[in-house]
């Protein structure tokens, strides 16, 4: 049966989601070749020794995972997608700007997974045309997305078990086969690289923040928030660190820049099963990325058609269009993929951090989780209005204050230069955005008796 709900609130009678289901989907979402490639950056691009690289990624994931999972706990309480909930901070039309940013992220991950999944398949079956592989992966993703969230959860959970076992087997194979002398200690420690890899780990988690509630909104409101937090946090951090660590190992041991090819050469007889499984997981897991991109697209469309509740047909048509867009871009963006993806991750962190901080301060400190959900869908936004200029101003400040601290291939901020290229922009963005929003929101909401202020 096709999922009937799109962006509207999930009725309490249909809140059949569970912590086990949420844990399964977050355990599986990270079991992808894209995660391996990201982990390899720590020992290749940033040239850290293997042990130090894993430690940096662990720290980043543990910290970033907290922010991500706090967003997940909002799903059971409100029962709506994350970007609909953003209307409570930015207004109905103001939130559309944030939804567009999140849409770019969802499509970025979808396109990235298409490219890497095709590379995995090509590593096993060189005769397969990459164009055919990309289209086939998109067709699989489309079929799963058509059915909806229940099937997405099922297939990703199953793939989590299969890929998880293969990742452990890959570690064992590589270590038992014999690691070249000095490979694990190669590279050198530097504070700049260590902090940069922590940032990579943090953004890997924070990047999920705009859509974790999309998966937890089917959990019961009474007891779901705490369970949603721990299920999301545990599933995502465990799987991320495990697969990122495999990437670190491959980057340290393999020669050349082809990470997936290096994984294949290092795992010998297991390589066929591993690469085939990764290719399949990329196609299956991509359904989740498109599912959330669809919700965001419908959210933006509804913004300019107040009161319109998208139907199942609207969801299916939108899904088909986004799959076509993804395949088209993926076919044009395969060259220089790793470099482009690294830059994408970094810029994404800068853009998402202010939103995440504002959202969490508003939800947990200012309003204590109390929102008028029905007002999210009214033409004028009810008490939240259409444009919350103050919140959008804070968001803009959160972006601007990061500029002196940014570290990008095309630009390094003056403060970052002065401290040796260490990237602290995301931490500054979190602190300034959250603190400033707390001050602004308290003053604004304290005069409005319709909106509870708990701070």
General description of the model:
- The chain contains 19 helices and two strands.
- The chain is mainly alpha-helical and 455 residues long.
- The protein has a single domain, classed as Orthogonal Bundle (Hydantoin permease).
- It has a two-stranded antiparallel ribbon.
- The chain starts with 18 loop residues before the first helix and ends in a 10-residue tail after the last helix.
- The relative contact order is 0.19.
Task: Write a compact overview of the structure shown.
The chain has 455 residues and is mainly alpha-helical. Helix content is 70%, strand content 1%.
End-to-end Cα distance, whole Å, is 44 Å
In the residues, how many domains can be counted?
1
Order of helices and strands: HHHHHHHHHHHHHHHHHEEHH
Residue share in helix: 55-70%
The dominant shape is: globular
Give the strand order of the largest sheet, numbering strands 1, 2, ... along the chain.
1-2
Query: For the residues shown, what is the average pLDDT?
Result: 87
Name the CATH class: Mainly Alpha
- The CATH architecture is Orthogonal Bundle
Largest sheet: 2 strands, antiparallel
SS class: mainly alpha
**Rg estimate, integer Å:** 21 Å
Per DSSP, the total helix count is 19
Secondary structure layout plus pairing:
Elements: H1 19-29, H2 33-43, H3 50-72, H4 74-78, H5 82-85, H6 87-90, H7 94-124, H8 130-147, H9 149-177, H10 191-206, H11 212-216, H12 224-253, H13 259-267, H14 271-303, H15 312-332, H16 337-366, H17 389-400, E1 407-408, E2 411-412, H18 414-418, H19 425-445
Antiparallel strand pairs: 1-2
